[in-house]
Structure formats: structure tokens, C-alpha cells
Design brief:
899 residues; alpha+beta; TIM Barrel; Rossmann fold; Immunoglobulin-like; seven-stranded antiparallel beta sheet; six-stranded mixed beta sheet; 20 helices; 23% helix; globular
Length: 899
């Protein structure tokens, strides 16, 4: 979602607002239903006030006692952009846990911290973006193509896995009482949305009716019908010629008529603008017509400002005030159910203290999630690492010391994240840890300037720069440097995310200054390209400013008022070094904004040959190489301004490991030292060469603030990996359809016919498991009845570990005109077993799980002989270590199901 508005809104607190409301107003009567209260409140508003309340940044209405409220909050894997919060693995990593109850608990943590932040904000009269209780998560789009940069935000490629994890996350967010939710979940993006990012504002998708109902809608149905999500977000793209946020099919027929949705719909940010913008859909004549189109189909709130033209639309007869009332009442029903018009002390959620943010229990759960997300892809026996065997370990690669590689996108702000290389130093105190960046993510991509070339002074052996943190001067933040620093320390690198967070104790998040000073020692003489990357929220750089001086000469500066930098987060500059001696460097950074946008990263585009030579030298000195490779959310993500080999606009044009990293792996392997490859990434990678040559491969995803510790604990065997792939790892893109082709033929494990590198559902363990034969409740099932399957899982190894039991259903060969997937996941359970322990698992398949979708999109249970498989992988996965067990049964008769 494009960040259109990033200003803090200060308004009256609920208590003060209520005091200004009309005496005995029905909308303040807690004995009335939320619907009655909302109807009364909206009836008192002017048309102009209603239009303003339809915006995501809804202003206060003092005469009615209505406080300001911003509907935009992000909680994909932790409360984002709102100060320090518990950071869980990126959503794709959460999916790799295959642990639905854990995902529910994560949702509960996210909403509890949202309440803690909201309660504290209201107590301080702050009503701002990212501090509300309407959380725009989860992203339950299907990750249909590994090239999509936002696939990292999803739960993978399978509708059932996505549906079950999304269902549990929603239940965790909203809590057990639908009339009094802890927060409001907003599954997105409805619907048929998964790139390309460059075309999302104008792309029209026309999937077959089979693909629509078999792949693109089931998880949304689960979220709304079973999860009772109170909100939903419509997508940017068009479906069958109409923008999703103007689609009567999606928002009328399917959502409200078929699924009986009673909550509110929010647009993706700028999606209503796309109705009329010339570079987008060109669906509406102008803003007034766009506003009318959105309201009439039920897009209730507009992320953006287009709905300000609703009064104009009413005057032109495009929409009635009653139509607007319907939408505004839905919005206020949600706010009333959340308790926003009641005294916080009168209900339990209103009393959640700020101390719940990053509580010890929440942090422990984040570490558990990071551990459970680890997927072991290859192991020739080197893992777990033998204690004391490796005296010198070379930790090499662009993700060895990357904060972004832990965070992913739409992330919470971690308070004390430990980078992977530091986790190795902590976990192997008796070993010497050698670190080298080794390569860029891709040729031309910037990397954080590493600690190895930075020192507080020319004669110091300490790595990093002297860092002085100053309280912001109230009149002019630039004068802060004249004060004494609040804190002085050494920062190994300049790579910080302080989104509404104070960098150190004693500073305020709104205004502060930092000076880093010391020396930089270039590895060779010559020209170097540097880069200063500002925080995520780039339109929020109200008064962001920095200067960089090398050898006393200012080489770059940034001020938001400079038009050259107004639209960029990555100001670049070049420096020529005549030698390899230490050169003085000073970076001064000031932040002066109401709430958001703080953070800075000092980057460079290093020379490939020098980096690789340094890595090989250190590898030769080591007993073990740990290559930290993969991707970065700076390269794959939402509508990014990136165009490099293999990357375009946030998407990828190829899924192979970028050439710079592949060359590094080959050079490291040539040393003859044992090598473990650790991937940090948000999507599938064709690591074909690594699979053939590395001793082990571990996929860690973007693993959250405890990702470094989870990686090390997994390599050491403290954590026995049990994660499973939520996506297919293909060998390349050659066998895949065009990225812009939304037909599911030859996509995902359900329809792909080629040979894969690693299959969906694949993952190894340090122990072994065995499955008993499958017991079915019946061999002949009448259409419309449920089927139960039972199996016993035994840990046959010598280590305690988790097993993920996966149930796949295979329809009769050639049935349904050959449209149905060859197999489909219809059940999964993650269990923990001690050595020798066993557990009996029961799966229940309802008629919808046993159904098929025909060419017209009709859903029905069909007769024939079906096969069911339960095991630790797909039934015929040759790489799996555990044999799956299968059974057959027959469905007699047929039964049609509702959409």
C-alpha cells in the first residue's frame, strides 16, 4: 500500500470527546446495539462530515464528541511502524511453521500489543496512523508465481494452508468475542491479486471460473465465513474489467450476498484514485464519479482523499446521502464494538497496559516462531554441528549482517535485534568467527557498509564508529549537536530502524540527533559509490537531514526541502580514495517529525572482485564456511524503485540465486572447506548449484528479531528443524507460464507437471518418523457426509523433534473434465514427540474439502474412487525421509455446494 499520508493526528481523548457530546445522546448509550448507536451518531453528521469520516484519516468532530481515528494500522508479523514491538518471522516464515495454533497465538500477541499502544496513545491524546485497532492483515493472496515480490507477505501457494493459517491469525487478532473484538482484522487483497507490481494499478485479470473458485477465493471465504473477519481490503487490480474496489461481483454478489459479510470494506491505498487516473484503470470520469462508484458497491472507507468529493457526487446525483450513510454506519459499528466510545476502564481490553508491549512471554513466542520456521533443505550429515569441532568459522555473505534480512517488510520495529554474525559469535565463544560480506545481493545493489572497514579511530582495533546520541533541541534540532550527548557508544554499523522509536533511553522519538565518527579504510584505492538509505516511511521525512564528511570535506547532504531528494529514500554519492589508509568519516543525522520515519543506513556498492577475494581468504583460514545468502526486502517487495539484473520494480525476473552470489559460492566451495548455505529470503530460490555442492542448506526466510539465534540453534542441534516449504522451489522459470498469466495451469504443486528442486511441503529433520497405515471411518462415503482419517506417528530416531503430518487428497483420474488439481492439501498437524514416543492423529474432511470445482465455477462433491495420503511430505516426494501412508475410498452420489 502506498504511503500517502504520514502526519500525526492529535485530537481529543475519548473522555474529553464524550464530555462535548450532546447530553444523553443515544450513541453513547452502551445498552443500545452498536448498530443503533452508529445510526444515531451518523444521523447527526453533516454531509461534509460524513465524507471526511469515510477517509482512513478520519478527523475529530468536536461538537459530537467524535475523536479522530486513523484506520491504517499494520500488523502482518508484529505491530509495524509504531515504535518498538515484538517482531515475528515474515508471514512466509510463519507459514513455514505449518503450525496453525501458533499462528493464532501470534495474532493474539499482535492485537494485544496494538491495544497496549492504542490505550497509551489515547491517554496522551494521540490519534494517529499505525496506532489504531483496525489492522490491515493478513495478506491471504495466493503466491501463485515465485517472481512476485510481495509473496513474502503471504502464507504461500496453497488455498487450504493459506485459509487455515489466515483463519487462525484472524481469530487471534479479533479474540473470542465477536461483539467486543480485541482488534479488527482486515484480510487482503480481495481478490485475484499477485503482481506484477509494475502493472497493479491498471492490470485487468480474467481468470477462468474454475481458477477463481478453486484457487483465488477459497481462503477469502474461510476468512469471512469461518473467521468472521470484521473488515476486508479490496485490491488495486481490476477483475473482469472492473476495478476490485468497484466490483459489484466481488463486493456485492460474493462478499455480502453469498458470504453474508456485515463488516466494512477498505480500499487499498490510492485504489479509488486508480479509477480515474490516466495511468491506471480509467474506469471513472473523475474523482466524484470514482467516489460514487466505490460507495455504491460497498467500498466503505477510502485510503486516500478521493472520497472528499462525495458531497460533490451527491450534488451531481451520482450517489445518495443514504448510500453514504450505509458505509459510514458500518465504520462506526466497528469503532463502537472496539469500545472507542466507551470509557477505557469499563472493559478489559481498554485496560491493557503498555507493559504488554514486548513482554517476556511475547518475545519468547517470537523466538519459538523463528525456530519453528526453519526449513532444512539438505543435510549430508554435517548437521547438527559437532561440538568443539570447528575452531574457526567463516560467516560470509550479504545476509550475515543485514537488519533488513531479519525484518522483511511491513515489519515491527525490533528493539535489540541480533544480526546473524553476532549470533555466531555469541553461540561459539571458543571459536574464532571471521566475517566477510563476500558479494552484493546482485551486481550494483548496495549493501550496508560493513563493520570490518569502520573504526572509532585510526589506531583502534574495535570495529564500528563512535556514536553520540543527542536530545533534540526544542527550537532547532540542528543545534542539538552543541549539547552533551545523552549516550555515547560504538555502533558496529550504521543500520537502524527507529520508526516512532527513541534510539536510546533519554531521547524522544519525535526529535533527536546522532553523530557517527571515526575512520573508514577502503580495501583498495579508487572510486566508491555510497548510499544513504532513509527509513521506510519516505513521505514522512518532515525534517530529516544528514550530512556526510570524509577527510573533513562534505561529500553529501540531505534535506527534505531539496527537490532532488524529495521522492527518494536512497541519496547516492561518489568518493575517490587515493590509498588504503584510514580516512576520517563523520555522519550527522537529525530527525524532527511528529511521530514517524526515523532511521538511517550507511551503504556502499562495493567492488565484486575485492569482496570475493576477501571472502575466499577468510574461508581458507577457517574450518567451516557458513554462507549467508539469499534475497533482501530492499530488492523484493512492494512497488520498489529497483531495476537490476533479476529484479524489476519489486518483482523478480528470474528466480535463480543472483549471479554475484552464485560466483561467491563456487569460489568458496573451491577452497575445499565444508560449507553450509543459509538462505534468508521471502520467496523461492533456484539454488540448483548449492543443492549439488553444499553440505547443507537451511532456509530461514526473513526470520524476525530472533532469527540469528534461531539459525545458530538449528545448526547446533539445539533446535531440531521441522519447518516445511509453503511454496514450491522450482529449478528455474523456464517451465513456468508468463508472470502476468493468471491461469493456474502448470503453477504451484497442485498443477505443475515438471521436475522441481524442492516440493511444497518438504523439509528435513535431525530425527526420523514412521506412520502407521491410515484408518478411514468408511470405505464408501455418501456425498455430503464427512470422512475421518486416523494415523499414528512415531518418533523412531534418537532426538526429540516435531513432525508435520500432511494430508493430501487425490481425485479420481480424469474426473471433472481433468480440471481438478492432481493432489491437494486438505489437512495438516504439527506434533512434538520425544524419542520413541507416538501420537495418534485424527483428520476430519468435510464436504467442501471433498468437493471439486467445474469449468463454470460450480462446487460439488462428485462420485468416484479417491486416494488419501498422510505423511511428512507429498506422497511421492523422493527427497523425503519418511514414507507416506495411503488409503482409498469411494464417494457415492453427488452434492452441490454453495459458493
Amino acid at each position: 500500500m502506498r504511503l500517502l499520508v504520514c502526519s500525526a493526528l492529535f485530537a481529543l481523548s475519548v473522555a474529553t470527546a464524550a464530555a462535548q457530546a450532546p447530553a444523553a445522546a443515544p450513541y453513547l448509550n452502551t445498552k443500545l446495539t452498536p448498530e443503533a448507536r452508529a445510526h444515531d451518531l451518523v444521523s447527526r453528521m453533516t454531509l461534509e462530515e460524513k465524507a471526511e469520516q469515510s477517509l482512513n484519516t478520519a478527523p475529530a468532530i468536536p461538537r459530537l464528541g467524535v475523536p479522530a481515528y486513523d484506520y491504517w494500522s499494520e500488523g502482518l508479523h508484529g505491530m509495524a511502524r509504531s515504535g518498538y514491538a515484538t517482531l515475528f518471522p515474515q508471514a512466509i516464515g510463519m507459514a513455514a511453521t505449518w503450525n496453525a495454533p501458533l499462528v493464532s497465538k501470534i495474532g493474539e500477541v499482535v492485537s494485544t500489543e496494538a491495544r497496549a499502544k492504542f490505550n497509551d496513545a489515547v491517554a496522551h491524546n494521540v490519534h494517529s496512523i499505525y496506532l489504531g485497532l483496525t489492522i490491515w492483515s493478513p495478506n491471504i493472496n495466493i503466491f501463485r508465481d515465485p517472481r512476485w515480490g510481495r509473496g513474502q507477505e503471504t502464507y504461500g501457494e496453497d488455498p487450504f494452508l493459506t485459509g487455515q493459517l489466515g483463519l487462525n491469525f484472524i481469530r487471534g487478532l479479533q479474540g473470542p468475542d465477536p461483539l467486543h473484538p480485541r482488534s479488527v482484522a482486515t484480510p487482503k487483497h480481495f481478490a485475484v491479486h499477485s503482481g506484477p507490481e509494475n502493472d497493479r494499478h491498471r492490470f485487468n485479470v480474467e481468470p477462468s471460473q474454475h481458477d477463481l473458485w478453486d484457487t483465488y477465493l477459497p481462503q477469502f471465504r474461510t476468512a469471512i465465513v469461518e473467521g468472521k473477519a470484521d473488515s476486508i481490503m479490496c485490491a488495486y487490480n481490476a477483475l473482469y474489467g472492473k476495478p476490485a474496489c468497484a466490483s459489484d461481483l466481488l463486493l456485492g454478489k460474493i462478499l455480502r450476498d453469498d458470504w453474508k459479510f456485515t463488516g466494512f470494506v477498505t480500499s487499498d491505498c490510492g485504489a479509488v484514485d486508480d479509477f480515474f487516473e490516466k495511468t491506471a484503470h480509467r474506469y471513472s470520469k473523475d474523482a466524484a464519479h470514482a467516489s460514487a462508484a466505490g460507495i455504491l458497491v460497498g467500498t466503505d472507507t477510502n485510503c486516500g482523499t478521493t472520497y472528499k468529493t462525495l458531497p460533490q457526487a451527491v450534488k451531481q446525483g451520482l450517489v445518495s446521502e443514504a448510500d453514504i450513510d450505509r458505509s459510514i454506519e458500518r465504520l462506526f459499528v466497528a469503532r463502537i464494538r472496539l469500545g472507542l466510545f466507551d470509557a477505557p476502564s469499563s472493559y478489559a481490553y481498554g485496560r491493557i497496559p503498555y507493559s504488554e508491549d514486548r513482554s517476556p512471554a511475547h518475545l519468547a513466542m517470537a523466538r519459538k516462531a523463528s525456530e519453528e520456521a526453519m526449513v532444512l533443505l539438505k543435510n549430508d550429515g554435517i548437521l547438527p554441528l559437532a561440538p568443539g569441532r570447528y575452531k574457526t568459522i567463516a560467516v560470509i555473505g550479504p545476509n550475515a549482517a543485514s537488519l533488513a534480512g531479519l525484518e522483511g517488510n511491513y515489519n515491527a520495529v525490533p528493539k535489540d535485534p541480533q544480526l546473524p554474525v553476532d549470533s555466531f559469535r555469541k553461540a561459539f565463544p571458543a571459536s574464532k568467527i571471521l566475517y566477510s560480506q563476500g558479494s552484493s545481493y546482485a551486481d550494483g545493489a548496495p549493501l550496508t557498509v560493513p563493520s570490518t572497514v569502520l573504526h572509532p579511530s585510526a589506531d583502534s582495533q574495535v570495529e564500528g564508529l563512535k556514536a553520540e546520541y543527542f536530545a533534540g533541541d526544542e527550537t532547532d534540532v540542528a543545534k542539538s549537536f552543541a549539547k552533551s550527548p545523552v549516550t555515547t557508544r560504538v555502533d558496529p554499523i550504521v543500520d537502524f530502524d527507529w520508526n516512532y522509536a527513541a534510539p536510546v533511553a533519554g531521547l524522544k522519538p519525535q526529535k533527536f540527533a546522532v553523530r557517527w565518527s571515526g575512520v573508514i579504510t577502503p580495501p583498495s584505492a579508487g572510486d566508491y559509490e555510497f548510499n544513504m538509505r532513509l527509513a521506510h516511511c519516505y513521505p514522512c521525512h518532515d525534517n530529516e537531514h544528514f550530512t556526510v564528511k570524509i577527510d573533513g570535506k562534505q561529500v553529501d547532504s540531505y534535506d527534505v526541502r531539496d527537490p532532488e531528494y524529495r521522492e527518494t529514500t536512497t541519496p547516492r554519492f561518489d568518493v575517490h580514495f587515493a590509498d588504503t589508509m584510514p580516512h576520517a568519516v563523520v555522519i550527522e543525522y537529525t530527525h524532527d517529525a511528529p511521530l514517524y520515519g526515523a532511521g538511517l543506513r550507511f551503504e556502499w556498492v562495493p567492488k565484486p572482485a575485492l569482496m570475493q577475494d576477501d571472502a575466499v581468504t577468510k574461508a581458507k583460514q577457517s574450518d567451516l564456511i557458513v554462507a549467508m545468502m539469499g534475497l533482501s526486502p530492499d530488492l523484493e517487495g512492494e512497488e520498489l524503485k529497483v531495476k537490476l539484473e533479476g529484479f524489476d520494480g519489486g518483482d523478480r525476473t528470474d528466480i535463480k540465486l543472483p549471479a554475484s552470489q552464485e560466483k561467491l559460492l563456487q569460489a568458496l566451495a573451491a577452497t575445499g572447506k565444508p560449507m553450509i548455505v543459509v538462505l534468508l529470503n521471502g520467496s523461492a530460490l533456484a539454488v540448483n548449484w548449492a543443492n549439488d555442492h553444499a553440505n547443507a542448506i537451511l532456509d530461514a526466510w526473513y526470520p524476525g528479531e530472533f532469527g540469528g539465534a534461531a539459525i545458530v540453534d538449528t545448526l547446533k542441534g539445539i533446535n531440531n528443524p521441522a519447518g516445511r516449504l509453503p511454496i514450491t522451489f522450482y529449478r528455474g522459470v523456464d517451465e513456468l507460464p508468463s508472470f502476468s498469466d493468471y491461469a493456474m495451469k502448470n503453477r504451484t504443486y497442485r498443477y505443475f507437471t515438471g521436475e522441481t528442486l524442492y516440493r511444497f511441503g518438504y523439509g528435513l529433520s535431525y530425527t526420523t518418523f514412521a506412520y502407521s497405515p491410515v484408518k478411514l471411518s468408511t470405505k464408501k462415503l455418501a456425498a455430503g457426509n464427512t470422512l475421518t482419517a486416523e494415523v499414528t506417528v512415531t518418533n523412531t530416531g534418537k532426538r526429540a523433534g516435531d513432525e508435520v503430518a500432511e494430508l493430501y487428497l487425490m481425485p479420481p483420474a480424469g474426473s471433472n473434465g481433468g480440471l481438478s488439481p492432481k493432489l491437494a492439501l486438505e489437512g495438516f498437524q504439527r506434533v512434538s514427540l520425544a524419542p520413541g514416543a507416538k501420537k495418534t492423529l485424527t483428520f476430519t474432511l468435510d464436504p467442501r474439502q471433498l468437493s471439486q470445482v467445474d469449468a463454470a465455477g460450480r462446487i460439488s462433491v462428485q462420485p468416484g474412487e479417491y486416494k488419501l495420503s498422510i505423511g511428512g511430505s507429498q506422497p511421492d516426494d523422493a527427497n523425503a525421509k519418511t514414507k507416506a501412508q495411503s488409503a482409498t475410498f469411494e464417494i457415492e452420489g453427488s452434492m452441490a455446494l454453495e459458493h
